[in-house]
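Q: How would the structure tokens look for this protein?
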Amino acid sequence: MSEIVIKFGGTSLATPELIINAAKKAAKTKEQYNRVVVVVSAMGSMTDELTSLAYKITSKPDQRELDMLLTVGERISMSLFSMALNSMGYPSISLTGSQSGIVTDTRHGNARIRNIEKERFLKHLDAGKIVIIAGYQGISYAKEITTLGRGGSDLTAVAIAATIGASQCDIYTDVEGVFTADPMIIKNARKIDVISDEEMMELSGSGAGVLYPRAMELARKNNIVIQIRSSFSENTGTFIKERDDMLEEVLVRAIACEENQSMIRIRAIPDRSENMQLVFRALADEDITIDMITKNVSDSGITDLSFTVGENDLDKTVNVTRGLLERVGAKEVTFKGDLAKVALVGIGMRSHSGVAALTFEELSKNDIDIEMITTSDIKISILIKSENVEKAVRVLHDVFELDKGGIKISRN
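A: Here is the predicted structure in token form.
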């Protein structure tokens, strides 16, 4: 028996006409698969509109009530989608996250899926129906409605795919697939036909907005192939799958960028593990997500600790770290905003040197100063001023020949 999960994003469902178009794609999919689950986002910008509405009522909306409000968007999409399919002669049923048995922890706004009671929807699949599930939402152990974080409909789709044993999950969006860089910045960015799940994990976590990072993590764990494809064409999209030797032939696969970054520096902190633990535990307790981290090496036992956070968390981060100064024995906290992160990703880096050297040479030639650098075996991340981000992406896209498919690694 063949199963597939398909997910439609908000831009694919922005109008009644687009919902009908998406429903036709779901109907066509049903002709090829025995079991089809459709996960839907809210129509267009409805989530943003509902959030704005909440903030017109109060500057600090209660998180429980905000979750109650925001989950309305997906419920509208799912019911309209089911109506469209039923009118076409394809039996379907719409289910909320809670009706689908998606059980989460109790955190509002960014809940984690803990279990899926699949019996809730399997009976409908067994009856031959297309099941339409509202993305982005679930119900906690405490029987409260929760949301999974922005982009959480991707996570819903992958989690359902893992639950029913589907080997593939198609994510329909407004782009043709994953590109070598943001097409809004690089007009000759190239669509990537196949990319490894490892590379996509790094791109998703570095600002590539095409796929929610937690969804990619779950897909990789469960060996689910994801296809990113357009709702507005019949073209094949980008397949994200387990790495193979062919994927290692390209030195750099793609470039991602993320603006609105800030850098925090705790100066002259005693270089002891308990101090690092205190700092990062305090930040985690405030739900502050840390990205790039560097620590100066010092023979004196005193170091500077630097890390980046999103601009929205800057004030909270500064307050938390300054509150720890006396406790950890540090001198001061400094910060810098209006920064952006640029990341080069490619599993070919693992077996080939010179990417970092070429990157820094080209940025230096173009008078782009680097504020911070972090590396892994398949990624190089640099922090620069926001005003230079588009220039940096263009320069690096050109030097690594990504418009031509990327610099190939010689195996001789």
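Residues 51 and 70 are 7 Å apart (CA to CA).

The chain has a mean pLDDT of 93.

Upvote if useful.
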